[in-house]
Amino acid sequence: MVPIHVSLTRRAAVVLLSLTVSAAPVLRSDDMADRRADVGARVFRALLAADLDLPKKTVGGNQILIVFFYAGDSRRAVELAAGFVGGGDVRGLTVVTEVTNDATFAKYAGRPHRVQRCSRSSASASTGT
Questions:
Q1: Which positions of the chain have pLDDT values less than 50?
Q2: Per the count of CB atoms within 10 A, which of 8, 34, 90, 118 is most buried?
Q3: E strand segments, the chain
């Protein structure tokens, strides 16, 4: 017969191992989503720099507004927005970012330039100009 403390220790180890193994895909999934969002922001910045009509899309003079949309937790969108501003100007235009979870972008409806939306059904943060 196995002593009770050994049996409980084994059960606890099995439970801990099960939880660790079951959480691993979730942790990897979040890490991969973060990487995709980082790469997406860099690619989007490069596309902005290549946009020949970018000076026509300014707001408030010499500023380009980038809106980060989030579906759940805003923390990652705020981090991406801060990183986007930290990258400096784009073709001489000051980058201004905002974060929203309003899928209608109602706040931006009165702006002189239309908000272009980029969306992914599985993403938690997207960008739009």
A1: 5-6, 23-24, 26-27, 114-129
A2: 90
A3: 63-70, 94-100, 125-128
